[in-house]
Amino acid sequence: MRYIGGKSLLVNNISDCILSYTDNVQSIFDIFAGTGVVTQDLLLKGYNLLSNDILYFSYVLLRGSIGLNHTPTFDKLGIDNPIDYLNSLNLYDTNLNKSDLFIYNNYSPTGNCNRMYFQPHNALKIDIIRLTIEQWFSYNKITEDEYYYLLASLIKAVPYVSNIAGVYAAYLKHWDKRTFNNITLTDNPINPTGRSCKCLNSDYLKVIETPVDLLYADPPYNSREYLPNYHLLETIARYDYPEIKGVSGMRDYQHIKSPFCSKKNVEAAFENLMKLSNARYLLISYNNEALLPTARLTEMCSDYAINDSFRLIEIDYRRYKSKIPNNNSGLKEQLYFLQLK
Ligand SMILES: C[S@@+](CC[C@H](N)C(=O)[O-])C[C@H]1O[C@@H](n2cnc3c(N)ncnc32)[C@H](O)[C@@H]1O
After folding, report:
1. Cα separations (Å) of 238 from 163, 227, 288, 325?
2. Could you give the number of structural domains in the chain?
3. How remote is the CA of residue 300 from the centroid of ligand 1, in Å?
4. Kind and range of the H or E element at 123?
5. Does residue 39 line the site of ligand 1, with CB under 6 A?
6. Are 207 and 83 part of one and the same domain?
7. What does pLDDT average to in each consecutive run of 10 residues of the chain (341 residues)?
8. Is 62 domain-assigned?
């Protein structure tokens, strides 16, 4: 999934850094996990992983894929292939009324509103799939693992039919070609390692003290809050009929504003990360144009580092994002590594 600050192109730099500078690391906590690409990569490279993110849809994505050691079998449901079944579901197969359908009524041009996030046929499909998964779970026809597996499959499928330019803060004014496709759920990758990967859904301060060998922290790096940019994925995951506002139909997010997105609070947010962590090692992903200047973060890391363990690794953004030809920006991805005192 395309995600602001997603690290899919940096996973090898992250694992190389861990291999080069640490000793006997077995457990790693990905405390701002987002799409989970780093958790997944490190898990497959042999570490024991714990993940966390404040957004529920991120939790769903992880919990319903690499949070599972086995592909669910849906024994109680009595449907051979629930993914195929959901893909071919119609409104008349369900006991739902159109008035129950939150996405159809609020995010597609149906007469009730003029927002153009989804074509009506996909909005309706998202609703009936989401509500059917909920009914199966509340009637005890599927287990909790099966519930998250199906939810993750739905969340993964939504961006492929969304009428957006990457984020949900606004919709496009003309229908993009991909929105005409039918939303299609697919199977999720699961955790094949035999080791467990526990997933959490908390503010980082509530879980920061968890004892692990290495804390990997990839916080937001500028003032763009995540919830407003991904509000529709959050609403589909939660399906809590929220009060929504404005042209984009935004749910409230004041209660989960991130201190890492505020110039005033970002330094204290990093201070808490370093002060409260019980990890032996800390690895931070950041960049040289982020809210907290490199000089200040370097100073803080040096203060919290044992002896001369602090390293700053900079990765040229032009090479990192090689699809941009002749990009002369001086943006550098950074890895701050230290052994904590
Ligand atoms: C740069 S992204 C992480 C990207 C991730 N490494 C990936 O590759 O997909 C930062 C993440 O931090 C999360 N976040 C922001 N503030 C948080 C907080 N206070 N506690 C926990 N997670 C938070 C956001 O929801 C977002 O998913």
Report:
1. 21, 13, 35, 40
2. 2
3. 21
4. helix 120-138
5. no
6. no
7. 95 98 97 98 97 98 98 96 97 94 96 92 98 98 98 98 97 98 98 95 98 98 97 98 97 96 98 98 97 98 96 82 61 97 95
8. no
Residue-wise pLDDT tens digits, 88-116? 999 999 999 999 999 999 999 987 789 99
Q: Is residue 82 part of a domain?
A: yes
Ligand 1 atom closest to Cα of residue 36: 9
Judge if 312 and 239 occupy the same domain: no
Q: In this structure, are 282 and 268 located in the same domain?
A: yes
Q: Judge if 317 and 278 occupy the same domain.
A: yes
Please tell me the pTM assigned to this model.
0.96
Domain that holds residue 299: 1-56+196-220+260-341
Q: Is 227 in the pocket of ligand 1 (CB under 6 A)?
A: no
Residues 185 and 263: beta-carbon distance below 8 Å: no
Same domain for 292 and 274: yes
